[in-house]
Write a structure and sequence with these properties.
There is one protein chain. With 330 residues, this protein is mainly α. It is built from eleven helices and no strands. Helix 3 crosses helix 9. The chain is globular and about 55 Å long.
């Protein structure tokens, strides 16, 4: 019987919940002029803290796939399933956006960008799966010096130079060409050095770094948004230094401070998490269309809407998982 990492299950569930929070908070943030400053601040806090979710998803994938032997047959199946899933969910959103959202869809645009922004993760993870045999070969032949150098260069070129614009014209292959590859590799490196580095003894540093990163992003974003009377998104990107630092610190803190004990609720939610990510956009459209969220303070509205989406998403994906023909694609 293969070992199941319950810690990664917990991180997966937390990340899935935070992804939904981001998309709810975005509604509030984009309604900057229609909500109170307090409500905007609340949405910004939820949005900022939840930005660690997508990086953690990549780190979970790296920790899972790079820690085991590469299996070309399993990887081919993995790629095939994700491509089929992408096609299915894209068709679903095209139909939904056309007939419910009344959005005119040009299918040729799908060659350049996802039908929904939330589906960009699918394109990114499929790309990583395709490159997995090469990434795995590189990782297996890297020692401590190369591992450390990769982390330093990746954070430097993505978190610092990319932000000030230098790396836009001076791109380094592997290091910053695809910033999410760094999260993928670092997730693996954290697990690799878990026995050599006593991460748990650095809890106070991890908490301090994460807290300061959140405060900096929230404060600067709030000030710029208030001054410009428009929501500022410049610091909320996954390649921003503060998001990078808080994501890695949060992953380490959570992973090394929770017990590796099986929990039926966490296991079930982890099993449903991918499907919930795929379909929650439809439920979000419905809820935000019929609920006057602008009149509900974000500190109250976001948690309530999150619970509603989670309940109905779980029910829908549970039903889908009962169909043997499509359960593997959700």
């Amino acid at each position: 019987m293969s070992y199941r990492n319950n810690k990664l299950d917990f991180l997966r569930v937390i990340s899935m919940i935070m992804v939904i929070i981001i998309h709810i908070a975005n509604y509030y943030c984009r309604s900057f002029s229609d909500i109170s400053k307090l409500s905007y601040l609340g949405a910004l806090i939820f949005n900022t803290i939840s930005r660690i979710s997508v990086p953690i998803f990549f780190m979970i994938s790296g920790a899972t796939l790079l820690s085991k032997e590469y299996d070309k047959d399993k990887n081919r199946l993995r790629i095939k399933r994700k491509i089929i899933t992408l096609i299915i969910i894209t068709i679903i959103y095209i139909v939904w956006d056309t007939y419910f959202m009344n959005i005119s869809i040009n299918i040729f645009n799908l060659l350049y960008k996802p039908e929904r922004k939330l589906l960009w993760f699918m394109y990114a993870i499929i790309g990583i799966y395709i490159s997995l045999p090469f990434v795995k070969c590189m990782i297996d032949n890297m020692g401590f010096r190369e591992d450390r150098l990769f982390v330093v260069l990746w954070i430097s070129f993505n978190g610092i130079l990319r932000y000030i614009g230098i790396s836009d014209y001076f791109r380094i292959p592997i290091i910053d060409e695809t910033y999410y590859l760094g999260y993928f590799v670092i997730g693996y490196l954290i697990i690799k050095y878990s026995k050599e580095i006593e991460f748990k003894k650095k809890n106070w540093i991890l908490i301090l770094i994460t807290t300061l990163s959140f405060i900096i992003v929230i404060t600067i974003t709030y000030i710029i948004s208030i001054n410009n009377s428009k929501h500022f998104t410049g610091l909320l990107t996954y390649s921003n230094l503060f998001i990078i630092i808080s994501s890695i610190s949060s992953f380490i803190f959570i992973y090394f401070n929770i017990k590796d004990i099986s929990n039926p609720i966490i296991y079930k939610l982890s099993y449903l998490s991918f499907g919930i990510y795929l379909i929650h956009g439809i439920l979000l459209n419905l809820i935000m269309y019929y609920i006057p969220y602008n009149n509900i303070n974000s500190f109250i509205g976001i948690p309530i809407i999150l619970i509603i989406i989670l309940i109905f998403s779980c029910l829908i994906i549970t039903l889908i998982k009962k169909n043997k023909f499509i359960k593997d694609y959700f």
